[in-house]
Amino acid sequence: MSNNPALRHTDAGGPAGAIVFVHGSLSSRRIWAPYSAAFGTRETIAIDLPGYGQEAAWPEGVPYRLSTAAAILRKAIEGRREPVDVVAHSFGAAVALRFALEDQARVKTLTLVEPTLFRLLRDLGPRGRDALRGIERIARAFTPSGPDQDRMFAIARFVDYWNGARTWAGLPSQRQEMLALKSDQVRRDFEAIFSERLCLPAFRKLNVPTLIVTGTESPAAALLVAEGLARVAPRASSVTIAGAGHMLPVTHTPDLLRILQARLGMHASPTLKAA
């Protein structure tokens, strides 16, 4: 692990309690930079999960689980008395859910952008099982120690699944190569997700105010998980951003920021208010 697991922005004049941002697969804490800048009267903590940003890759051969990744979040808020507001995306939102169930007293609110806790699809009927088969096909392309062309194929399918067809083809070759280098960590992220044994009824015990954010253009696997969680968790609600896809924290920053403003009672930077 790195010696600098979190990017912090602090204004000592702000209210107590930090906002903790958690990124998804094939990303890093840097996606949250505009959000940290906007919440100038709050302390914000943006963490890197294992294998991304400045955080070291998880060791090969050592089981990787959501609770393992949640330990990074726990370390980032170690020693704090006040519960934190957690904002998390995709795989990071699955990590945040595991963390919140393990230690609800540490979490004031959850804002989850399309959590990818795919185990829950088994509990969502025929549509859920169809969506599960689709995302399992994406995951199976990631194999340990595969040749370079297999890694490239796996990452290409992954990127297009979450960002839309032909997204990969539009990326510069250098960018493609950089993303392919993260294929082993994406495989580990899938390992953590599919090893999770939590089922949908477990979230009836999630007594944390939870907002689930989705985009209308996202894959069924993400939307169905969000729908199931919003229905079962007792203090959950949901909001949808029209025209947004799974990467909405990047593509629809002003929209998500407005949601966070209203939810967390803060004022955003004027430069981020325009759509």
Radius of gyration: 18 Å
Profile the largest sheet. 7 strands, mixed
- What percentage of residues falls in helices of 4 or more residues? 40-55%
Unreliable segments of 5+ consecutive residues:
1-15, 267-275
Element pattern in H and E: EEHEHEHEHHHHEHEHH
Beta-strand percentage? 5-15%
Number of helices: 10
- Number of DSSP-assigned strands: 7
Q: Which structural class is indicated by helix and strand composition? A: alpha/beta
- Span between termini: 37 Å
Mean pLDDT: 89
Overview of this protein structure:
The structure is a single chain. This protein has helices at 33-38, 66-76, 91-102, 125-140, 148-163, 173-180, 183-195, 220-232, 248-251, 253-264; strands at residues 6-9, 19-22, 44-47, 84-89, 107-113, 210-215, 236-241. Helix 2 crosses helix 3 (91-102), helix 4 crosses helix 8 and helix 5 packs across helix 6. The N and C termini lie far apart (37 Å). The protein has 275 residues and is of the alpha/beta class. It contains ten helices and seven strands. Residues 1-15 and 267-275 have low confidence and may be disordered. The relative contact order is 0.15.
What would you say about this model in short?
The chain has 275 residues and is an alpha/beta fold.
Describe the secondary-structure layout:
Elements: E1 6-9, E2 19-22, H1 33-38, E3 44-47, H2 66-76, E4 84-89, H3 91-102, E5 107-113, H4 125-140, H5 148-163, H6 173-180, H7 183-195, E6 210-215, H8 220-232, E7 236-241, H9 248-251, H10 253-264
Parallel strand pairs: 2-3, 2-4, 4-5, 5-6, 6-7
Antiparallel strand pairs: 1-3
Helix pairs in contact: 2-3, 4-8, 5-6
